[in-house]
Specification:
The chain has one domain. The protein is 36% helix and 17% strand. Strand 2 and strand 3 form a beta hairpin. Helix 2 crosses helix 3.
């Protein structure tokens, strides 16, 4: 049975392209045995994520899900998609979006979505590590986040000490994803 993922009402179902098991954005039982995301077979969408780093932009999420950037930004503002804000920047972790799509489709969460996005980083992070992870080109942005307390760190002597576990914990705590209201 084909299913569309159940994200905010009308978001994906209105964007589903005609395909096996999908007619006018509605999945019909018995017509296909694959999960579709915006009209594409789920395995195609999963393969597209491999091209992106651990932190993705709203435009990249929109590209993979086959929708408009404005729709993704509306989801972010409404708290229906996993993300967080640091300063004025949306930080979207790819593994959280993959898990969110899988859960919305009623599937088990893929193993890649359970992995540590900072596994390749040392326990104590530098501003360069943060620039690489958050895909920031200007180190001043990272320093502003540190000085404003947007990133948990300690200033010791003449340098910032950023513990990876504290950063990951902070990112988890500041996720804007809100639970769907129960009926």
């Amino acid at each position: 049975m084909a299913r569309l993922i159940s994200v905010p009402e009308g978001a994906l179902s209105g964007r589903a392209a005609p395909g096996p098991g999908v007619h006018r954005g509605i999945a019909h039982p018995g017509l296909a045995t694959q999960v579709t995301v915006a009209g594409y077979p789920r395995r195609m969408v999963d393969a597209q994520w491999d091209e992106y780093p651990a932190v993705v932009t709203p435009a990249e999420v929109a590209e993979v899900l086959g929708m408009r950037v404005g729709t993704v930004r509306a989801w972010l503002r409404a708290g229906t998609m996993p993300a967080r804000r640091l300063g004025g920047t949306w930080i979207i972790l790819k593994h959280e979006v993959i898990a969110w799509v899988a859960q919305s489709a009623g599937e088990s969460v893929p193993q890649e979505a359970l992995s540590d996005p900072m596994a390749d980083y040392p326990e104590f992070l530098t501003y360069r590590d943060l620039m690489r992870f958050f895909r920031i080109n200007y180190k001043g942005t990272v320093y502003i986040w540190l000085e404003q307390g947007a990133i948990p760190a300690t200033y010791v002597g003449s340098r910032w000490v950023i513990h990876k576990w504290r950063l990951l914990q902070h990112l988890e705590e500041t996720n804007v994803l809100r639970d769907a209201p129960s009926d």
